[in-house]
Amino acid sequence: MKLYHTPGAPNPDRVTFFLRAKGKLDALDLEEVSIMKQEHKTPQYRDVSPFAQVPALVLDDGTKITESRAICTYFENVFPDPNLMGADAKEKALIEMWDRRVEMMFFIQFATWFRNAHEMMAPLEVPQSAEAAAKGEKNAKKMAERINAHLADHEFLAADRFSIADITLFITCGFCRVMKWAPTKEHEHLGRWFEAMKARGFAG
Ligand SMILES: N[C@@H](CCC(=O)N[C@@H](CS)C(=O)NCC(=O)O)C(=O)O
């Protein structure tokens, strides 16, 4: 199995942090792809990932899997311990609920802000839109407040135990640095949760 990834980029980090939390990062052949050098846009890489995005997983039989969540689902089934996506119907639903909320209402909103506002993204987001940036910023900040309120009386984001939802939130909070925004400093409960997640060591 070969995993194409970009250390420091949030979607690839979601997968490598997930694998490290399972103790299985060393089980894979890893290949780095530089987004800033636009290596993900070469014909060779498009053959692996037709939408020219990282991460991408190629199985030993040649099957190509993209989408960070789908790659994590594959690894959850191949490496079931520790369970990170739910052990029964209720846990699976609660973990997926929070994971999707974080991805759609926080991560993607923040990414919309970043991609449309940061000069580093100008070559990749053509054309940038100030209106889209403002909307993404507003939505991301609203969701950070909501998550902070939830964490006031929860140790973990979903199902009262560590899960992929925590990993997705962790990479999102780290990603916020690129806009010089620190929701984990701004929000007390999010900050306490973030320090506890760092101490688990899955981010390397
Ligand atoms: N929904 C995809 C998104 C993948 C994605 O957008 N990856 C970013 C890196 S974090 C990328 O490849 N960006 C390249 C570009 O925008 O040209 C996933 O979850 O894997």
Automatic annotation (TrEMBL):
<dbReference type="InterPro" id="IPR004045">
    <property type="entry name" value="Glutathione_S-Trfase_N"/>
</dbReference>
<feature type="domain" description="GST N-terminal">
    <location>
        <begin position="1"/>
        <end position="83"/>
    </location>
</feature>
<dbReference type="Pfam" id="PF13417">
    <property type="entry name" value="GST_N_3"/>
</dbReference>
<dbReference type="InterPro" id="IPR004046">
    <property type="entry name" value="GST_C"/>
</dbReference>
<dbReference type="InterPro" id="IPR036282">
    <property type="entry name" value="Glutathione-S-Trfase_C_sf"/>
</dbReference>
<protein>
    <recommendedName>
        <fullName>Glutathione S-transferase</fullName>
    </recommendedName>
</protein>
<dbReference type="Pfam" id="PF00043">
    <property type="entry name" value="GST_C"/>
</dbReference>
<dbReference type="InterPro" id="IPR034345">
    <property type="entry name" value="Gtt2-like_N"/>
</dbReference>
<feature type="domain" description="GST C-terminal">
    <location>
        <begin position="88"/>
        <end position="204"/>
    </location>
</feature>
<dbReference type="InterPro" id="IPR040079">
    <property type="entry name" value="Glutathione_S-Trfase"/>
</dbReference>
<dbReference type="InterPro" id="IPR010987">
    <property type="entry name" value="Glutathione-S-Trfase_C-like"/>
</dbReference>
<dbReference type="InterPro" id="IPR036249">
    <property type="entry name" value="Thioredoxin-like_sf"/>
</dbReference>
